[in-house]
Amino acid sequence: MAWRVILSVLFLISSIPRSVAVGAPQVPCYFIFGDSLADNGNNNDLDTDAKANYPPYGIDFHEGATGRFTNGRNFVDIIAELLGFDEYIPPFATAKGGDILRGVNYASGGAGIRDETGRQLGDRISLNHQLQNHMVTISRIREMLGADAATYLNKCVYTIWMGSNDYINNYWMPDIYPTSKLYTPKQYAVVLIEQYEQQLKTLYSYGARRLAIFGLSEIGCTPAEISEYGTEGSLCVDKLDGEVMPFNDRLKPLIHELNRNLTGARFIYVNTYGISTTAVPAVPVTCSTCCEVKEDDQCIPFRTPCLDRSLQSYYDGFHPTETVHMEVAAIGYRALLASDAYPSDPGLDIASFTALPTVGSITSDK
Ligand SMILES: *[C@@H]1O[C@H](CO)[C@@H](O)[C@H](O)[C@H]1NC(C)=O
């Protein structure tokens, strides 16, 4: 897999603007839905244990600790750069005035497709709640743009990466959540995907037309799960990865059907499965985290993290380093391999969204 990483890295080096991007971004706006992998500060003022607004989070980020659950930029920051934005997309919690015309980041650590997911951590903004927040944004955009708002929203890029917490902070906590008693892994995937389908259709009804849906990664490879379950000689906790797989297996055909059924929409599935093991091929997946972690597998505040951060896969027990986020952004933005994104024929990726014609007649009303 090394050659693929080299390709991706070369691509990133050549396309990320070193300084401020020159000229207009490729699309006017970028909206982000997700969990801690994309959160950029929405949890900072929530009553929750899922927070990352303290060092050593952000040690490689120019503003320091912002609430991003990694050492540097997360994948949505990098996608924003690749799209040509000269500022990162603001969190819903603090986005003001005309800023929201560039897009809004609704992602919240601990959140899931299911409303109850992550409850034991404290407050979080579930995907359903993120969609309600998006309605608030849309009303504000309508106030600013009037009748042009619908066409404007059609032009935006939307990324959604949800579902990890529906396993980590729900299904795999049988003492707190009943889901693993109610459903086999395959049944749970069906239930999750049915709810996800409704949520993605809601987003479409709100005017979204260019949507990249990120599949689940190998959650069984996170240091937290490895140290909890052990690997029995394997690289990762194969049992957990096996339970996540049915979700991805169902998500791909859903993407296919949504493309077929929803007029004017382009959905892609981004294949992040395996990325934790391929992004940093020199480093085998191990239990090691870059920062020293507390019992909840988040960084202990103010401890000095590892120095070779660019060569590590995991920053804390659950969250990847910026290096892995770069790889995620790279395959989503420009799918170089047929396996990077789906449908691969015709090759669709976020970069290809920017070339799609605007379908002006589609309204953003339900
Ligand atoms: C797509 O449309 C077909 C035919 O109407 C229907 O059976 C199917 O459930 C729809 N799928 C989705 C995801 O909307």
TrEMBL record:
Protein name: GDSL esterase/lipase At4g18970-like
Membrane-spanning intervals of the chain: none
Subcellular location: Secreted
Annotated signal sequence range: 1-21
UniProt key word Signal: yes
InterPro entries: GDSL (IPR001087), GDSL_esterase/lipase (IPR051238), SGNH_hydro_sf (IPR036514), SGNH_plant_lipase-like (IPR035669)
Organism per entry: Rhodamnia argentea
One Pfam family it belongs to: Lipase_GDSL
